[in-house]
Design brief:
By secondary structure, this protein is mainly alpha-helical. The protein has a domain of 49 residues: Arc Repressor Mutant, subunit A (Orthogonal Bundle), CATH 1.10.10. The chain has 5 helices and no strands. Helix 2 packs across helix 3, helix 2 packs across helix 4 and helix 3 packs across helix 4. It is elongated and about 65 Å long.
Length: 89
Amino acid sequence: MTEISRSERLLAYLLLERMGDRSQEYKAVRLVRAGFSNAEIADLLDTTTATVTQTLYVARGRSGKNSKAAATGKKVQATPKRPKHRAES
């Protein structure tokens, strides 16, 4: 399991306290945006890594974003589209 420092844990708990009664999904998305791994988030939210992974998957689906990087707000480099090949008759 991933270890986070005491100061990171303290800051995460302060962030969680400020979020109050928000949903686990809301909290997980904010924590992943702050740079925490799924295992660290699971530890902070007192749940399993599998639950966090599923929660973030659902959150990405709701937001219409199809990648973890997109859901976290990080810039991702667009991959160039390949030209379509026309079938010759």
